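U., I forgot to send this yesterday:
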Amino acid sequence: MQLSNTAAWLLLIFAGLFEVAWVVGLKYTNGFTRLIPSLLTAVAVIVSMTLLGLAARSLPIGTAYAVWTGIGTVGAVLLGILLFDDSANALRLACIALVLIGIIGLKLVSR
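Result:
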């Protein structure tokens, strides 16, 4: 079943947000030794992959995958800065800005 372009992009955005959740969740699992964070991380992986799969029915796979990983990358870096005191130097932030530009560019040139 083909989704509308808008619906596919919305699913892809939510898939990316759930990717951020599971990537950050990995930090809280302590190597999957903590039950609740591990279960929540596993659920986020399943939701993220399912939404990506649904979006990929209607979007080019290369675009869908690149945007999904881009959202995950940007979200993980920003939450790493906010939650885990990761570095926020100018060069690192500039690189994240480039990833964002790539995500926006892919959206603009995709159907």
